[in-house]
Amino acid sequence: MVDPRNTTRDAYLIAAIPTQYTTSEIVQLFARGYDRYLVDGEPDPETVLSDVERFVTGAFEPAQRERTLERSFVDRPATLVLLATIGTICVMEHFRFENTPVRRNQVIHHIRELFANNLLSLIREYDDPTLYQDIAEVLYGKPPSEDGPHPGRVCTDVTTMSQSSTDGFDDEFKEDTLYIEIPMAAASRACLTRTTDEATSAEETGEIRTQLANNSLYIPIEDFETDYQEYAETGFSSLRSVQEDELGEDERSWLTANETAISDRIERAIRGGHYEKLWQNWDQGQRLVRLLRSAISASPNIQVGEFHTSKELYDALEAYDPETNGEEAQLRQLSNHRSVAKTLANNESHQSITIERSGRVNTYQIAHSSSGARPIEVDDLEDLFELPCLAALDERLQEEKPVRKDLFNIVRMVMWLPQYQDASLEETIDDLQNLFSRWPWHDPEITEYQIKYEARRGERGIGPEGTTPLPMNCDNDDMQRYCIGQDQCPYSIYGSLPFPDDMYDQLDGNDDWF
């Protein structure tokens, strides 16, 4: 039985591996967090909210999220859990995210990242090897077999290794490196950590970093921490779910009515056009705009670029014959002119939607696509480098070996271009080989492997079966390495390239598998 409200180590334990504990035990962790905010035995919700706002606004800042790995932003695990979970609910309750799935809410992703980094920093500071062992039980233990779970500990030590005991280690062994020790009898495949940064061979995965000695596997501590960060971000949903059930409607209403800093930060991002800070891999309102443009273009009564009432727009939608299942599903949601007006108001932040409120009846303008991102005609694959981010990538790849994600992303872009929708895989490979040959490190065998790997992803269950994985959009963290700044760039990947509607239809209908 654990007692997180009164025992510090138990508080660390439940915060660290919440998936292993009950709802009531997590609620006791919340209680420990609230206890810190008691003033003369009475709750102090204003101070709680102030700290929640500080945490969430901090999560907006990449430097803060990164810096927290070195120095904790919040100094106690129960406080961290409390602020992060309440902050997430404040974001979810915000009207800007009314129609946003949690998986597409970039702010929540940032909160999860800050939470995971902060928690890892606290665990390091706490410096209890037995806590690392408990975490390793979750990360690396075998699933129960027919004979039941492994009877001993999964992690038997957190240790440095003397040179005399490392005869089986590779040449990069360092005596001062900490390792997680896992007996072979207890080890799962998750213990085999690998290097994955560069595509230097035709192998799907990189070299194994886990070491073997003394009939045990030794996982470098930095790999353990990387694995744990991934778990912590995922495990955070368990904490969030409990908090969602714990907070009543009155408490939610109070939070919504009284928080200001989070709303200010959200509105600042919208005013600056930084939608990537709010929505992940999902261009808010883009599918609605495309549908309305199509319906307006098909109507003899109204025009794209002109102001119209919601009734006029609804009439055009009602007369429109949808071309895809995605459009048909959207039309079902726009069942009358009031739902059209409400949906447009919810998506007013989109650069192609303008609402005129000066008259007796609101009117709405759907701008031509040319008023948004500058279009690119891709007659030859080298036309892709008109995108400034790909031009920067091209320059880098002239000097350095590639990162796997960069190459895979180019493959995805090409596979989604209209001229390759019905092309054979062999034709696609030939054209990509010609494109990749511009870089000095090009290896035809590796290139062919990578293209076929992407083509097989849907068949292997990564994403909907038989589909091509989606290319990264401008707001993807990996693309940010090459971005010149979205507020300065006249292009966008999803807006400028001539991708078919089928690709955009997938954006709302899948999890973050791409």
Quick recap:
By secondary structure, this protein is mainly α. It folds into 4 domains: 8-128 and 230-277, no CATH class; 147-228, no CATH class; 286-371, Winged helix-like DNA-binding domain superfamily/Winged helix DNA-binding domain (Arc Repressor Mutant, subunit A); 381-507, no CATH class. It has helices at residues 8-16, 23-35, 45-59, 62-67, 77-93, 106-126, 129-140, 221-246, 249-258, 261-271, 286-298, 310-319, 325-333, 337-346, 388-397, 404-416, 425-436, 444-456, 493-496, 501-507; strands at 38-39, 42-43, 157-159, 179-183, 211-213, 216-220, 307-308, 353-356, 363-366.
Describe the structure.
With 514 residues, the chain is mainly alpha-helical. It folds into 4 domains: 8-128 and 230-277, no CATH class; 147-228, no CATH class; 286-371, Arc Repressor Mutant, subunit A; 381-507, no CATH class. The protein has helices at residues 8-16, 23-35, 45-59, 62-67, 77-93, 106-126, 129-140, 221-246, 249-258, 261-271, 286-298, 310-319, 325-333, 337-346, 388-397, 404-416, 425-436, 444-456, 493-496, 501-507, and strands at residues 38-39, 42-43, 157-159, 179-183, 211-213, 216-220, 307-308, 353-356, 363-366. It has a 4-stranded antiparallel sheet with strand order 3-4-6-5. Strands 7-9-8 form a 3-stranded antiparallel sheet. Strand 5 and strand 6 form a beta hairpin. The longest helix is centred in the middle third of the chain and has 26 residues, at 221-246. It starts with 7 loop residues before the first helix and ends in a 7-residue tail after the last helix. Residues 197-204, 458-466 and 508-514 have low confidence and may be disordered.
